[in-house]
Amino acid sequence: MKALRSLIISGEEVLPLVEGGKGIAVSNGESSGAWAASGGVGTFSGVNADARDDKGELIPVVYHGRTRRERHEELLSYSIQGGITQARIAHETRAGKGRIHMNILWEMGGAERVLKGVLEGAKGLIHGVTCGAGMPYRMAEICAEYGVYYYPIVSSARAFRALWKRAYHKFANLLGGVVYEDPWLAGGHNGLSNVEDPNQPQDPLPRVRDLRALMRECGLDQTPIIMAGGVWRLDEWEDWLDNPELGPVAFQFGTRPLLTKESPISDEWKQKLLTLKEGDVYLNRFSPTGFYSSAVSNPFLRELKERSERQVAYSHEPVGEHDTEFAVGARGRKVYLTAHDRDRAVGWVAEGYTEALRTPDSTLVFVTPPRSREIRKDQIDCMGCLSACNFSNWAQNEAGTTGRKADPRSYCIQKTLQAISHTADVDNQLMFAGHNAFRFRTDPYYANGFIPTVRELVGRLCTGA
After folding, report:
1. What's residue 194's pLDDT?
2. How remote is the C-alpha of 112 from its chain's centroid?
3. What torsion do the CA atoms of 230, 234, 236, 242 make, to the nearest 10 degrees?
4. Are 415 and 352 in the same domain?
5. Can you give the residue range of the structural domain that contains 202?
6. Are residues 309 and 377 in the same domain?
7. What's the CATH code of the domain at 233?
8. How far is it, in rounded angstroms, from Cα 375 to Cα 366?
9. Which of 28, 186, 190, 219 lies at a CB distance of 3.0 to 4.6 Å from 229, suitable for a disulfide?
10. 451 and 346 in a common domain
């Protein structure tokens, strides 16, 4: 493989190897600090990060507010405290080497307040901020206020053009790089647009070439592009190294750092990663954000898929083929289905899916009574972790609502990500992963269940393998 050349990232010369940020305690101060100490760029997640007290003990997240807005304020307080905690840990762990970035989700609740709060409380400890899942126009201005480099995460040149024209051209000096995230291969939330087919992956090289061409038009020919999503070993990307069409390129690894000794995920999660087969990661649209996301196809995701398959359209009055009565709920309120859908609904009820829940799209979804109670409780317990949530209908506005019905086809993302991050339950919770996660099982590096340290992994990556 060609020699791996260092790059200037966030003001320092480092290896062009970036740890991808993974939310809610999956990328933390220990893992990101270890990555930076190995000469690269470590990234801790600022999405509801774990806070610790003066003794280093985890501060449990407990909500006392009676309303969503009160709980939302508590969540933001926890988030800011947690981000500062992880920044300090990362700073101490890196021992003066590498760079530390913080990753946030622009669509998370109170994103601007959390970003400002952490940067204020951890001044000088964070060198860059990466941000995706939305169009983070304000990120540049906020980072400039604190003298911190910013790194938008995009999946197309078109998305970057919009960001540049509206805001980023005013703060070009602190644009540390642009993260291109492959929307078909990356784990977690992906940037697939409505005009792109989730079942037809596109080669990232032409898309990144287009991004670089646009960046050159903006005078950003030497600003690094960070390739994220689908990167496993660098000898498979050798044609990207020293490629004059692409300019300076770094590589981001989100999934491989999960399987390191410093990774805070449970041993059960690590062992699960070693068993995955090709195709076990599922690109889906169940997330309450409305974005596509990629996660391991476990019982949690299969239940969501089956839930949506038990779904029929209804009308309040007989219209066209919707002319067959069906009684919904304890009061037996009548709606109208097609004759075929009524037969399906009767069959589901006979199987025990007796609760018909209305969706915002004038459909009914059939679930068991225990599942119905769980869905309603999760919706009521909402703490506003997103700027707008399809599942609970919370929105970060004066009304506190999206104005649409809560959607029972989705789930409480805060609840499940907190659970998988802090328990051993890997079957009944959402487990984000990139589509190359199956390679843990086939890569000889991980033979006999070997789990490297971060330093060992970075050294391995530098060899191309």
Report:
1. 79
2. 17
3. 110
4. yes
5. 7-277+437-462
6. yes
7. 3.20.20.70
8. 12
9. 186
10. no
Q: Which long-range contacts (CB under 8 A, 24 or more apart) does 145-149 make?
A: 145/116, 145/119, 146/119, 146/120, 147/174, 148/119, 148/174, 149/10, 149/11, 149/174, 149/175, 149/176, 149/177
Q: How far apart are CA 385 and CA 109, in angstroms?
A: 5
DSSP SS3 for 261: coil
Indicate the SS3 state at residue 69: helix
Q: Is the pTM of this model over 0.90?
A: yes
Question: End-to-end alpha-carbon separation of the chain, Å?
Answer: 9
Does residue 308 sit in the same domain as residue 246?
Answer: no
Asked if 223 contacts 168 with a C-beta cutoff of 8 angstroms, the reply is no
167, exposed or middle or buried, with CB in 10 Å at 0-12, 13-18, 19+? middle
The tokens describing 114, both together, are: 């959390």
Q: Is residue 142 part of a domain?
A: yes
Q: pLDDT (tens digit, 9 = 90+) per residue, 162-205? A: 999 999 999 999 999 999 999 999 999 888 887 888 889 999 99
Phi (first) and psi of residue 16, to 5 degrees: -80, 45
The Cα 376–Cα 391 span in angstroms is 10
Is residue 283, in this structure, part of any structural domain at all? no
Asked whether residue 430 is domain-assigned, the answer is no
